[in-house]
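BUG: 3D viewer hangs when loading the predicted structure for this chain

Environment: internal workstation, default settings.
Expected: structure renders.
Actual: progress bar stalls at 90%.

Input used:
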Amino acid sequence: MQVRSKGAVGALMILGISVLGAAPVAAVSHTPAGPPAPVCGDGVPPPWVTTASHPNDGVPDPAGRIVFGRSITKDPTFGQLTTLYAIDPDGSDLTMLTDCQVEYPHISPDGTRIALGIRMDDGSMQVATMAIDGSDLRILTTSGYNEYPDWSPDGTWLVYSGAPDADVAAIDRECPINDCLLTLGLKEPLRRMSADGSDDRLLGDPEALDFYPRISPDGMAVVFNRIDPSNQDWHTIMIRELATGDERVVTANDREPALPQWSPDGRSILYATVHAPGRPADIWMQVETVPADDPTAAPTVLRPVAEGGGSQPGYSPNGSRIVFFCGGLCTMAADGSGVQEIISAPGLVPVQPNWGIVPKPAD
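Structure tokens produced before the viewer hung:
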């Protein structure tokens, strides 16, 4: 395994909800005698973590901390599930946070906690938070499918995609291999709740299938992906104003723009999109950005396929750099220059990165 800040960039990219080289998900059995529990491993870090070199081990990086998943399975309902790790942006201080089956971690504004989706042994997916070191896991939702949580700017509430009334057993029975949620008519609208799980309520269109919501830096709007009910491969990036409920399209095309992120100043939306429409399986991706308020604007390509491409991009806390999946895990300047590979290991497939601040020391 190599943990580094410079190196070659992998060329083959994957869409945010696809998986590369992952094994099928194992069957899950739930013991009726007890409440549902997370699906986890034995807690032992893999060799590529325990044998990694750790320059500046234990020294906080002022540039922040990156959490990312190791792709472990392709679940027919949830898509890509991972185990969770953290690393400094310079490639040091690599640690395993949890080997539970989780998705799309997001660090709180103060850097102290991580919100994520976590797979339970009853077949459901629930929203949870944990401390930045992987301790103090708290399951916030209790039924149905709930995923893709994000923090408000002040860290007091969460937005997520939720279907709390979904019949998990029926969906697992009807969708054992392929994603057939649209065929079954499942709705997964945007919801919100307090950071402790209280005051849970509907936020978005109750008839929509919306995913990956991200709250604007001013807390006034949410950007998200909407799936076309007539074609689950058609993803539109939308913005919803929280005060009025008004929605507008950011970008919609047959290249499936996915996993949108706000720039730290709130002026633009970062995402990855398919470079070649209609290509099956391992799809070439590129990183683009568009203005948040002009759906007619042409996208700015930051990481084209010709230069290696990329997917699942996200900004650093100060907006000067972008972390993205590059076959390994890479960063680049906000204009697409200065690509650096942080980590690469055989079979690692590091995905779903999120870059947060280093928490301030406790008084």
